[in-house]
Amino acid sequence: MDFTDEIQMGIGPTGLGDYVIRVHDSPGQLPLAEWNALLSAQQQPTPFMRLEYLSALHESGSATTATGWQARFASLWRQGQLLACCPAYLKSHSYGEYVFDWAWADAYQRHGLSYYPKLLVAVPFTPVPGSRLLAINAEARQLLMHGLQAMAAKLGLSSAHLLFGDSADLSAAQGQAWMQRQGVQFHWQNRSPLRYATFEEFLASMQREKRKKIQQEQRKVREAEIHFEVRQGSQISERDWDFFYHCYQLTYRAHRSTPYLTREFFRLMSRDMTENWLLFTAKRGPEAIATSLVALDPVQGHAYGRYWGAVESVSCLHFDACYYQPLAWCIANGYSRFEGGAQGEHKMARGLLPVSTHSSHWLAHPDFSQAVADFLAQEGQAMRGYVNELEEHQPFKACPQ
């Protein structure tokens, strides 16, 4: 294996046969059909790993060098065939990742060392678990992982990280002795033997207290004379997208922050991944007052809560727009999973249950690596206890199987 000179990495052969690692400073340099073909063959594909999605992040100015995401996509080739690939970035900060390592960066700084840039394998701003190392087989995935670590070492980077990977990714990372970190998210599933036919059946499966709470929250929205319009794919007009983006900006402004994603990103999504988007618009009469955007994987039957915003405050509208309306839509349309995004144990009361997430980490400095390993061991034990405690507080009459 060697790194090609075309990206001017200056990394020599590593003696692993006639494989070649290429490093790309733009996702547009990779073959779209071949990338997506590898994605479709993975055990946990998501629409966020499609090359159109990653390219839109880059082309729209959302994830670029200027915003701290310097593309270094890696690909593994043999005799002209793409065997493995992944999105990778040199990061100059830790924003937009949702796996927090600020304390590690601070420790480096206090010891006069540079934590940034670091190498990150992830989908920017998208904490959705799924395949990150796309590969034709386990051997190719392991070789790609080896190449990533070799890249980080040769560039003198402090560390390398793989976020929200699937079990195949974790196995490849463990093969390189990367440290493992556990997190938790909250997902809803509609699967046998429950298989709700209606939203009312879903509510009926919940404990009385939880069911009444949801009904009260939805009643408050109705009493405010709010109704919802739902549009999917090509039904979402440019005007709809404009109003959504206005609301999206307001959400960040309320938290004294600025949006990660540009309006151009959503324009590219409406053009290149049309059928992957579902928009809920809350209206009072003809006036739109809030929106909730959900991403769809029609092949897998999975939905992903993404962004929300409102031009005025209405009691409980957030819960209805971001959870109850999407769950009702999923049930009506035969979708089996709804992922509610990062963090938020309040989601359990809405029927979303805890699911473990995973990330993998390599630190070059041996002393810091050992310190982080000790920290992760303690954190992991605490996280397992936290998840076990959450599972003891199921919102359902009987735990879904």
Automatic annotation (TrEMBL):
Pfam families documented for this protein: FemAB_like
InterPro entries, per the entry: Acyl_CoA_acyltransferase, FemAB-like
Signal peptide positions on this chain: none
Protein name per Swiss-Prot or TrEMBL: GNAT family N-acetyltransferase
Organism: Roseateles oligotrophus
Lineage: Bacteria, Pseudomonadati, Pseudomonadota, Betaproteobacteria, Burkholderiales
